[in-house]
TrEMBL record:
It comes from the Bacteria. Keywords: Isomerase, Manganese, Metal-binding. This is L-rhamnose isomerase. It is an enzyme of class 5 (isomerase). GO terms for molecular function: L-rhamnose isomerase activity. Its EC number is 5.3.1.14. InterPro entries: L-rhamnose_isomerase, Rhamnose_iso-rel, Xyl_isomerase-like_sf. The lineage of its organism: Bacteria, Bacillati, Actinomycetota, Actinomycetes, Kitasatosporales.
C-alpha cells in the first residue's frame, strides 16, 4: 500500500468547487419540491457554500451561473464571498432558458438569435473580469429533434464561429471550458454531444480552450476514465462536473451511483499528476438536490470525492508498474482493488483533525444549528431555483 502520509499531503491541498445552483430549489420536469431555508439570492447561496467549506475545508470556491446569479455589482458579491471565507469560481453561461432559444442559441438558424446568445457569452466574460474568475464554462442545449430539421454541418460552423468570438474576447489568464452532453434537451442531434466534438473545437481554438467532463453526460457503459486519460495526455482536460447518474443526466450525488467509477476516474487523475497543487483542472460538482437537504447533500458530495481520491492515492504504483511490466494481469488488478477496498474514512478523519476541523463534517453541520437558523431567517422573498 502506498504511503498514508504522502496521500494525506495531497489530500490537504485538494480543492473542490461547489455549484451555486445546488443550493437553490430544483426538481424534474414533473415537479420542483421547494425546501424551507433555501437561498433567495446569490448572497445566500454563497453563505451556504461557505458553510460547506467551513465543515470540509476543501471547497473554497463557488461556481456562478449567469443569469441565475446575476447581481448589480459582482465586486460586492466577491467581497461577500471573501468575508464568508470563499471566493467566486467558474462562470457558467446560460443560453438555454429563453424562448428565443427553442431552435438553438449559438447554432440557431436565425442570425439575430445567434447574436443574442453570443452577446450573453461575451457578457459572461465581463462578469469574469469583475469576479476574477479564470474559467468560462459553456454548455449548450443546442441540437435538433428530427432528421432534416437543420443542417448538421452548418450548425457546427455556427458553433465554431461563436466559440471563436468568445475565445478571442478572453483575457490572457482566462479559459474557455467546453462541456458536452450526449442528449437532452435535443433528442436527435446535440451540437456538442461528446468529448470528441468538444476536443476538436478546443484544439481549433487554442491552448486556453479545454474540455469539461460532466460524469453524467455519457451513454450507459461509457468508459469515462478512458476519456479522462486521453484528455489528460493531450493537455485538454479543463474541468470535471462531478455527479452521479443511473439513467441519464440525473445530477445525483457524486459517488452515490458508482463509487468504483469515481475511483477509477480519480486514479487516472492521480497517475497523470493532475492533482498537484498547481494543477489547472477544475474539480467541480454539478448537482441538484431535489429531495434531500442541500447543504448536507453538498457535504456528502465533497466527502465522497475525498474518499475516492484518498483511495486513488493509496494505489501502490510501484507494485502496479511491476505487475503491468511482467504481464501479471491478476496481480495488477489486485493492486488497484486493494486500494479501492481500503476504508479511508479514518485517514480522512485524521486529516480533518490535523486541520482543526471536526472529523465528522456531516455531524458537525447537523450540530451547528445552521439548518434551523436559515429556516427561521429566510422567510418571504422568492426562493432561488431553476424553475420547471
Ligand atoms: C447542464 C450542464 C451544465 C449545467 C446545467 C445546469 O446539463 O450540466 O454544466 O450548468 O446543466
Ligand atoms: Mn454539467
Amino acid at each position: 500500500m502506498a504511503d498514508r502520509e504522502a496521500a494525506k499531503s495531497v489530500l490537504r491541498t485538494q480543492k473542490i468547487e461547489l455549484p451555486s445552483w445546488a443550493f437553490g430549489n430544483s426538481g424534474t420536469r414533473f415537479k420542483v419540491f421547494a425546501q424551507r431555508g433555501v437561498p433567495r439570492d446569490p448572497f445566500e447561496k454563497i453563505a451556504d457554500a461557505a458553510r460547506v467549506h467551513a465543515h470540509t475545508g476543501v471547497a473554497p470556491t463557488v461556481a456562478l451561473h449567469i443569469p441565475w446569479d446575476q447581481v448589480d455589482d459582482f465586486q460586492v458579491l466577491g467581497r461577500a464571498a471573501k468575508d464568508a471565507g470563499i471566493t467566486l469560481g467558474t462562470v457558467n453561461a446560460n443560453v438555454f432558458q429563453d424562448d428565443d432559444y427553442m431552435l438553438g442559441s449559438v447554432t440557431n438558424p436565425n442570425p439575430a438569435i445567434r447574436r443574442k446568445a453570443l452577446d450573453h457569452l461575451l457578457a459572461c466574460v465581463d462578469v469574469m473580469d469583475q469576479t476574477g474568475s479564470r474559467d468560462l464554462k459553456l454548455w449548450f442545449s443546442d441540437g435538433t429533434n428530427y432528421p432534416g430539421q437543420d443542417n448538421i454541418r452548418a450548425r457546427q460552423d455556427r458553433l465554431a464561429e461563436a466559440l471563436d468570438a468568445v475565445y478571442r474576447r478572453l483575457g490572457d489568464d482566462q479559459r474557455l471550458i467546453l462541456e458536452y452532453k450526449l442528449f437532452e434537451p435535443a433528442f436527435y442531434t446535440m451540437d456538442v454531444p461528446d468529448w470528441g466534438t468538444a476536443f476538436a473545437h478546443c484544439l481549433q481554438l487554442g491552448d486556453r480552450a479545454k474540455v469539461c467532463v460532466d460524469t453524467g453526460h455519457h451513454a450507459p457503459g461509457t468508459n469515462i476514465e478512458f476519456i479522462v486519460a486521453f484528455l489528460l495526455r493531450a493537455g485538454k482536460l479543463g474541468a470535471f462536473d462531478f455527479n452521479s447518474r443511473f439513467y441519464a443526466d440525473d445530477d445525483l450525488i457524486v459517488g452515490a451511483a458508482d463509487p468504483f467509477q469515481l475511483f477509477r476516474i480519480l486514479f487516472e487523475v492521480v497517475t497523470a499528476g493532475a492533482l498537484a497543487e498547481d494543477s489547472d483542472i477544475a474539480f467541480m460538482l454539478d448537482q441538484c438536490h431535489n429531495i434531500e437537504p442541500k447543504i448536507p447533500g453538498q457535504i456528502r458530495s465533497v466527502t465522497n470525492v475525498q474518499e475516492a481520491t484518498a483511495k486513488a492515492l493509496l494505489v501502490d504504483t510501484d507494485a502496479l508498474a511491476v505487475a503491468q511490466a511482467s504481464g501479471d494481469v491478476l496481480g495488477a488488478n489486485a493492486v488497484l482493488m486493494d486500494a479501492y477496498n481500503t476504508d479511508v474514512r479514518p485517514l480522512l478523519a485524521e486529516l480533518r483533525e490535523e486541520q482543526g476541523l471536526d472529523p465528522d463534517p456531516m455531524g458537525a453541520y447537523a450540530r451547528s444549528g445552521y439548518a434551523e437558523r436559515i429556516v427561521a431567517e429566510r422567510v418571504g422573498g422568492t426562493q432561488a431555483g431553476w424553475g420547471a
